[in-house]
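Practice record 12: protein with flavin mononucleotide.
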Amino acid sequence: MEVLEAIASRRSIRKFLSTPVPHLLLEKILEAGTLAPSGKNAQPWDFTVLEGPAKERLLMVLEQAVAGFSEQGRPTGSAPYTIESLRQAPACIVVYNWRGNPQADHNGLHRYGFLVDVQSIGAAIQNMLLAAVELGLGSLWICDVLYAEREIAILLNRKEELVAVIAIGYAAEEPLARPRKSWREMTKWEGNAW
Ligand SMILES: Cc1cc2nc3c(=O)[nH]c(=O)nc-3n(C[C@H](O)[C@H](O)[C@H](O)COP(=O)(O)O)c2cc1C
């Protein structure tokens, strides 16, 4: 029941207090991530926690990359707003797929392995978001960092595949639930279930 409550009460938090997040809580969140299921138990995730100046450097390369997109007249979607949320969060967790190669062609056999690993990492991220709820913390799952995929690779000296960043901190807002399609609309029952 408590898990269902955490699932129902989780929100994407985009405004954070500056209060630092105790490392003990970050450790619990990271452990929750590693308890996720993964294809063949490959555990394809790894995590880098950034705070203070390290987080500022990430923010700087992201801002520069997004500004570069704008200058070229390319769409930047929600990225400018995401940057403001990430700026407020006292900590963030960079999530990599250590089995992933950003140069790889994700077709054919590669596609199967890629999909399995990305699902596994999605499960780890969701575990971390739910752990944050339990610990009284807010979080934001961020993929807009992919605008700066190459720049972040250089910054963190990584050759593997960047998946996402999770911004974490104490929430400074209580957003209403975003709308959802009902499970009835999205589900077919077949056979003799009823
Ligand atoms: C894979 C993924 C990527 C996301 N990337 C971003 C992002 O870059 N910036 C952002 O503000 N929100 C991001 N979100 C949050 C979604 O916008 C949010 O989950 C959705 O609007 C539903 O709102 P809720 O999380 O409050 O239920 C992302 C969520 C997921 C699952």
